[in-house]
Amino acid sequence: MPRNPTVVRTVPALRRAVDALRAKKATVALVPTMGALHDGHVSLVRLAKRRAKRVVVSIFVNPTQFAPTEDFGSYPRTWKEDVAKLAAEGVDLIWHPEVKAMYPDGFATRIVPEGPATAGLEDRFRPHFFGGVATVVGKLFTQVRPDVAIFGEKDFQQLRVLTQMAADLDLGVKVIGSKTVRERDGLAMSSRNVYLSAEERRAAPELNRVMKEAAGRLRAGEDTATAMAAGAALITKAGFVLDYLEVRHAASLAPIGSLKDGPMRMLVAARLGSTRLIDNIAV
What CDD domains does UniProt report for this protein, alphabetically (predicted)? Predict the structure, then answer.
């Protein structure tokens, strides 16, 4: 039977526990999560174990990245199941703070990222989001002081923002992206997929199918505007309300004209009923 990881809930306890993990100069990997863990998260943990001797997983539903109209209160929380999954993977430590441990009374400092955070993708629809993410992840990096941190590529703009932040602020952590884990029908795994009705779940894989079709058209020489317009029409026809379907430079997230302008990433966000889905693929 797997041994449960140590769970800590205060910063002093976390510091003591991480210091103990670093005995004999062991390397430490951090996997930041908001819980409601699925196989995509498990893949992050497994990559972390390959990149470091010890693994810390944080579970914290971060209120500062949710707008008042979003699902902070109803976001899925599955603590017992999460601990069981992490125990099965041999995780060493779970950092599970209360909100007041992360944002004590009088907290008044925020990280305001620019660059990839202002690329006109997620930030156009969730202007509050990356400030909240950068602030909490900046705190996690300084609390845990990991050698590496693992994030999924499904949240690709977030990955670029946090990679830039770690480099710009000399935080001493290498940010590593892990490939998106998908259901058999192509839907990117997400904790929010539980919100989908049965009918919506059947329609949801259309996002990935359309992106792959559009990528094929781009590789065949079609211009980006035509390929994206055709893809947007197909996504709307499938019942989604589209926020964006765009091709950007894979490193800077700047708009890009053709394959010869550099490595490309196609990114999409769309609503299906009350659920907002995001995805991306390399082109």
Answer: PanC (cd00560)
Domains of the chain: 6-178 (3.40.50.620), 193-282 (3.30.1300.10)
Residue 79 · residue 4 · CB < 8 Å? no
Q: What is the pLDDT at residue 1? A: 65
Q: Is 191 among the annotated ligand-binding positions?
A: yes
Residue 231, marked binder? no
Does the annotation list 37 as a binding residue?
yes
* CA distance to 5, 141, 184, 205, 216, per residue, from 231 (Å): 45, 38, 22, 14, 11
- List active site positions: 41
Size of the chain, expressed as the number of residues it contains: 283
Per-block average pLDDT, block size 10, for the chain (283 residues)? Answer: 90 98 95 98 98 98 95 95 98 98 98 98 97 98 98 98 98 98 98 96 98 96 94 98 97 87 94 97 95
What is the spatial distance between Cα 215 and Cα 218, in angstroms, rounded to a whole number? 5
* pLDDT for the residue 24: 86
Q: What is the pLDDT of residue 176?
A: 98
| pTM of this structure | 0.96
